[in-house]
Amino acid sequence: MKRIGLLISFTAFVLSALGQGIKFENNLSWEQVKEKAKKEHKYIFMDCFATWCGPCKMMDKNVYAKREVGYKINDQFISVKVQMDRTKYDAISVKSWYSTAGKMMKDYHITAFPTFLFFSPNGRLVHRGIGYQAPQQFIRLAVNATISSAQSVTLLANYIDGEKNYSNMLKLIQIAKDAGEDSLAGEIAKDYKQNYMNRLSEKQLLTKANIDFLINNVKLLSSHDLVFKIANETPEKLNKIYPRLAERLKNYIISKEEIYGQILTEDNKPKVKNPDWNKMAKIIDRKYGKGTAESLILNGKIIFYQWAKDWNKLISSYVTKQERYGLDTSGFGKVGINNFVFEYIFKYL
To answer: Are 157 and 179 in contact (CB under 8 A)?
Structure first.
């Protein structure tokens, strides 16, 4: 009976250990965490959270506490939770991390919570993730942190060093955005568009993934691009992917090149005092067909006079647009009309 009792107690202990989820080191400094990881040849998982963050609490409850998550993470990682905000209720152990947490938020461009940072056994950041992750999704994220060909930060560093792999470049763009490196994300997107997208045939280009990329990076498009030619000559091909996409892309690109580039600087300040609307309209109609310019010029006037703070001409242009093309009474249309009436007519007339 005694042996059976001991066996039951041992089994309960093992099951308890397995069921504890991720084991976080709560009483170590950052230097001690790195020393422990190096000594045990383990990676470091850092959960960067805030006390007010709902998804962070969901990670604690639904993910970190899971036995299968703890089993996978505890075997390969030294884990630590780092509170990035400060409250009057903070324990001494939390306060001891204040300086380190502040430095990490700045150095690693942490702008959203939870942010997951993964470090190599020698303390080098190699991988990161963001936002709530389901248990299996989080396990995959952590596993990738231990594989050099899948480490997000490593892949980004390789790109900066000149390694160009267009098959993972869409992933790199998102990695750069998540890291707060917006200018780098833009640089990679430009590279991808110029050196990969521009070489695709029409059949290769017309996939939802490619069109989504172009929509998300619409500022990179010009009238010389294949997608503009499709929008202009065979719009039905684009409209199969998204309704009215061809018209919207075409109008955006024409307006950017023929109107906004003429009247506004890159930071959207008026470039000229009195735009020659008639000249711009004639050029647009000559290039793209009679009648193309009218609505685009009206939109251009609304944007320009808003920036120029010429309220009378702004309101006149807006009213003209509504008279010629009708009121948009959809949900967003109603909001737009209401905002315009309040912001400009009530305030300045």
So the answer is: no
pTM: 0.68
Token couple for 247: 């018209």
Task: State the Cα–Cα distance between residues 170 and 167, nearest whole angstrom.
Answer: 8
Give one DSSP letter per residue of 103-129, joined into a string: HHHHHTT--SSSEEEEE-TTS-EEEEE
Q: Which of 69-83, 103-117, 202-216, 297-311 has the lowest mean pLDDT?
A: 297-311
Question: What residue type is assigned to position 138 of the chain?
Answer: F
- The total of other beta-carbon atoms located within 10 Å of residue 220's CB is 16
Write out pLDDT tens, residues 132-186. Answer: 999 999 999 999 999 988 898 998 999 999 998 898 899 889 888 877 788 899 9
Structure-block tokens of residue 274: 């009195």
CA-based nearest residue to 126, from 46, 57, 190: 46
Contacts 24+ apart (CB under 8 A), 91-97: 93/26, 93/27, 96/29, 97/29, 97/30
Q: Percent of the chain, pLDDT > 90?
A: 68
